[in-house]
């Protein structure tokens, strides 16, 4: 079994109200030093093995189901390979 | 500037309806070979520089604001260090 991670983040030019809310809450909680926060989604997909075909399929999933390509960017990474 | 990433995922023993919904949608879209999906959150925090003190503070933010430690685990990673 292996785990493929799809990270979906709002594009830089897109407003991110969730991230803004978190950023606004930090000073109220006594945290300083963070100049920006953006919030996105993380999907962990369990697959039998990581091959180029599987990664291509995950890429297509990310494009069609997991992200909205108009407002979001995504990256696909292989996290760990357990046997 | 550097980017610190906080990944928040539901604990393994916690039901994850969002992940289940994604997992259920995959076969309908013609995707096979994914045995499980879990969905969590990803926060990208911009900080001036990455020091042990900053990382400790981010760890505390993750614990108190970004995650619910009863049902979620989080990990803190340093993504990239731009000068």
From TrEMBL, chains A, B:
<dbReference type="GO" id="GO:0005737">
    <property type="term" value="C:cytoplasm"/>
</dbReference>
<dbReference type="GO" id="GO:0004642">
    <property type="term" value="F:phosphoribosylformylglycinamidine synthase activity"/>
</dbReference>
<dbReference type="GO" id="GO:0006189">
    <property type="term" value="P:'de novo' IMP biosynthetic process"/>
</dbReference>
<keyword id="KW-0963">Cytoplasm</keyword>
<keyword id="KW-0547">Nucleotide-binding</keyword>
<dbReference type="InterPro" id="IPR003850">
    <property type="entry name" value="PurS"/>
</dbReference>
<dbReference type="InterPro" id="IPR036604">
    <property type="entry name" value="PurS-like_sf"/>
</dbReference>
<comment type="pathway">
    <text>Purine metabolism; IMP biosynthesis via de novo pathway; 5-amino-1-(5-phospho-D-ribosyl)imidazole from N(2)-formyl-N(1)-(5-phospho-D-ribosyl)glycinamide: step 1/2.</text>
</comment>
<keyword id="KW-0067">ATP-binding</keyword>
<comment type="similarity">
    <text>Belongs to the PurS family.</text>
</comment>
<comment type="subunit">
    <text>Part of the FGAM synthase complex composed of 1 PurL, 1 PurQ and 2 PurS subunits.</text>
</comment>
<protein>
    <recommendedName>
        <fullName>Phosphoribosylformylglycinamidine synthase subunit PurS</fullName>
        <ecNumber>6.3.5.3</ecNumber>
    </recommendedName>
</protein>
<comment type="function">
    <text>Part of the phosphoribosylformylglycinamidine synthase complex involved in the purines biosynthetic pathway. Catalyzes the ATP-dependent conversion of formylglycinamide ribonucleotide (FGAR) and glutamine to yield formylglycinamidine ribonucleotide (FGAM) and glutamate. The FGAM synthase complex is composed of three subunits. PurQ produces an ammonia molecule by converting glutamine to glutamate. PurL transfers the ammonia molecule to FGAR to form FGAM in an ATP-dependent manner.</text>
</comment>
<dbReference type="GO" id="GO:0005524">
    <property type="term" value="F:ATP binding"/>
</dbReference>
<keyword id="KW-0658">Purine biosynthesis</keyword>
<keyword id="KW-0436">Ligase</keyword>
<dbReference type="Pfam" id="PF02700">
    <property type="entry name" value="PurS"/>
</dbReference>
